[in-house]
Amino acid sequence: MASKNTEANVSVFRSIDWFTIFIYLLLVSAGAVSIYAASYDFDNASIFDFSEFSGKQFLWIGLSLIIGCVILLLDYRIYETYAYPIYGVVILILIATIFLAPDIKGSRSWLVFGPVSLQPAEFGKFATALALAKLFNSYNFSLNAKISNYFRALILIFLPICLILLQRETGSALVYFSLIFVLYREGMSGLVLFSVVCAIVYFVVAVKFSEPIILGIPVGEFSVFLIIILIFSLMLIFYCRDFIIARNVILGFVGSGILVTILSLCGVTINGTIYFCVILSLAVGYTLIGMFHHRIEKFLITICFAVVSVLFLFSVNYVFGNILEPHQQTRIKVALGIEEDLRGAGYNVNQSKIAIGSGGLTGKGFLNGTQTKLKYVPEQHTDFIFCTIGEEEGFIGSITVLALFTALILRLIYIAERQRTSFGRVYAYCVVSCLIFHLCINIGMVIGLCPVIGIPLPFFSYGGSALWGFTIFLFILLRIDASRKERRD
Amino acid sequence: MTKDYKLAKRRYVIGGFICLIVFIYICRLFSLQVGDDKYKENAESNAFLRRVIYPARGLIYDREDRLVVFNQPAYDVMLIPKDVGEFDTTTLCTVLNLTKSQLLEKWAEMKNPRKNPGYSAYTPQKLISHLSPEDYGRLQEKLYLFPGFFIQTRTIRQYNYAAAANVLGNIREVSAKDVERDRYYRSGDYTGDLGVEKSYEHHLRGIKGVEILMKDAYGRIKGKYENGIHDISPLSGRNLKLSIDMELQAYGEQLMRNKIGAIVAIEPKTGEILALVSSPSYDPSLLIGKERGKNYSTLVKDPFKPLYDRALQGAYPPGSTFKPTQGLIFLQEGIITTSTQYPCYHGYINKIRVGCHGHGSPIALKPALQTSCNAYFCWGFKNMIDKRGTRAYDQFEKWKNYLVEMGYGYRLGVDLPSESRGFIPNSEFYSKSFRGPRWSANSIISVSIGQGEVLATPLQIANLCATIANRGYFYTPHVVKSVQDTVIDEKYRTKHAPHINKEYYDDIAEGMRMAVLGGTCRGAALPGIEVCGKTGTAQNPHGKDHSAFMGFAPYSDPKIAIAVYVENAGFGATFGVPIGSLMMEKYLTGDISPARKGIEERMLNSNTIISSGVKKH
Questions:
Q1: Most buried of A209, A264, B389, B485 (most Cβ within 10 A)?
Q2: Is the entire prediction scored with pTM above 0.90?
Q3: ipTM for the complex?
Q4: Each residue of B399-409: pLDDT tens digit?
Q5: A465 — contact with chain B (CB < 8 Å)?
Q6: Domain boundaries in chain B?
């Protein structure tokens, strides 16, 4: 038994995905160097000084590597077997955190053990991923088989979300929503994902472009109507595959559009909302009458899409104006570039844009960044660490980092698809989803494309919890992946 | 299994999604980092404190190398509002010698966006300007008590003479417009206002230096950027040497006290202006330091308009000082010769009548200048404009062109900011005002004796005089003789010569000499100096006649040409001649001969301002 174990352990290091390990090592060391640069003061001591951020980060990296090795040495079956207990323990810790954690800047998410602080939310990800994977791996489980299967999956996801929201760590909680990708991969209708994307596009376009006014409505709203018409037409062609209806509907849209243009040129202005509602109602009505009964479901979905889209558009302005809190509106407006509140919510983003923008093509050189050194960018060693790279390594350094992350994510998708069990695949897609979310939101926020949501850049940002959380997350995947060949024996 | 295979395809959606996002981010990064320089500039203004080191403004000397304008340090209390920590207002008040309400008022003024449009809590702001040296000393000692405060040393102007304000000008803080127009300026800088301070601003201001300091996000100075290798030391402004003789200028201003008018004295050989007096004037040191704003508005409101430079901007009817130009034109055009005689029976009588005064008739050119005969020049003008076989329209254009060549009707281009062009009508002007081409010499006869539509500035009159003194050429008049390390503008070194023969100028000069020897300018005669002159008594619609004089001396080798214009002072001989002759005597001999002390006394004490009709409120 013992010899078999040793054999297995040896084979782990033979069958492990070294490409991923290589990228991982590149990312963490680049991260440590960036943290050194970000916290470098003009008369700073050594890079390995443990009282400094960079020194500590080296300590965390060392510990991560040890954790990684331990994970790789353990039997892969442990993770599947103990998936639910691990999930349960983490949930308990999350609950405890709400009560035990001291209030730090309004959030109660840090557990303090003497000199060490841990953020349990960072460890929730791998536990949730394990539980989700275990659920999907259960005998004869299929997401679409029963509606209750969706509920079981969603409960596993929403439980940590609620607990983390109670800790007032909105950013970390939002990460779990990225698991929608996993559900999508496992059979959830693509329409859901499509709707989510459409909703985000509608929202951004409608809120961002309030000027100029076309046909009595803001250009943003006008554009959303055009998008709805476009998607509706495309769905008739490619989804319902009814070319006659599609042709007539498109002719109707184009014809009425030309008419309205001519009328407005002649000075007769027609209210855009009324025009679009009328023309869409006519199109929907015509489709309802003319549709084939054997594709009724697809036609109904198409019609539903148009109706819900219009209703959503109407509710956006209401929700944005009446339901969101002023500071939330401000954050969104700043992110969408509508407002430049340089001393308030926009300060971070503006300063980080300045830092990155001043880097130029090749950057100012290692330790030569003035913006990050002189502490213009807040949180520069944690959430805004990408600024340091942007300023000191320039465009080339920035796209190198982006390329490394993309390579890692694509590699993990590849690994996910080569898993022989649902457990491995689902778990892998959880890692992929979380990485995608962290990468998109963190870098999007730093370059001013997303709202400021405080989540770290994986492997880069300073902090033990985040680094360990992601290391555990990733290395469990690597361990599971390495067992592909063991199974074959 | 087929279904699984279908679902497996979804990896491409997920992979495509991340690739799309990354592509968008790369585009964004490209536009931020490579496409747009705005962020680099922002980064610099963020991290670098470019502390300006102000250069010393150029000094101003007069033609005798007497120092006229110099610099004196002034201290401004500055602060960066964001960095201001807690401090004891009472101590600050005691140190600065202010009451608490005064301090609060200054503070509110600094923060008022209308009074201080450049206010920002992150940049240095001026709290109090022009601290006295005592207050400065006290504050410097206690400065450590007031975090965020610092003292900025600036220089302000100081004047050795209470004269020539119109020539020297002064300096003021730049306006928002100046900052927009010229990248050199930053809010709070000084720039020249009026006079040579304005027209030679580029020479006087020098080049600002800068030291680049690094500051962190809290505004703390982190030392010099790269040990100061990028710092630039300031370059002092260039000194100016005026052509003005300050003693003569001050003397002229004294003579013009209680009178409204102007004196312009030019060195004919060079076009250098020796004195440029506009009266009433003011003490240039009123416009420096703390009191500038208050004094400036007093000057603006003054009904006698001391800020208005009558020597350059006053457009007056030239009156009889215009007659030499007519003589020159008629001679050149062949209308007359020096022996041509015209009748004068107490005036020009030819359907209309222009009055004249008693003298022999008929009369030739030189005696006509001597006695300032109106009829002679009216006849000459008539014969020129109504010349047989020509159109009045063309003849008058010719007449106008001669005058333009002599410097009338357009700005001469003196090196001072504001100059009026006077007025010389052209044929078009009359065709318009007579509604057609049916006008003749008689319709416009008064222009031939410097009345009617014709207007000239005292500078233009003096320039004519200099041209006659030079017997046919002039240099554009200017007040700056030389600029340190460079040469004055080409345009002040270029000779201008009207297309009139030199011998005709000799004739005119002789006529003007005769006027002094036994004509209207007898009062201008100086012992031992051959003076030439021409009086002018200009009628004007605003009351009593203006008294004018132009003259030059000595006759054969002119050193000074002068024009005097005193508003509402009566005959040219009463004020114009004595003031002009005193100026010439003062300049040529350095003093006033005892025999003429009486005249000097009379001029110094006379007051014509009361007849101007302007009331001082």
A1: A209
A2: no
A3: 0.86
A4: 999 999 999 99
A5: no
A6: 55-242, 246-612
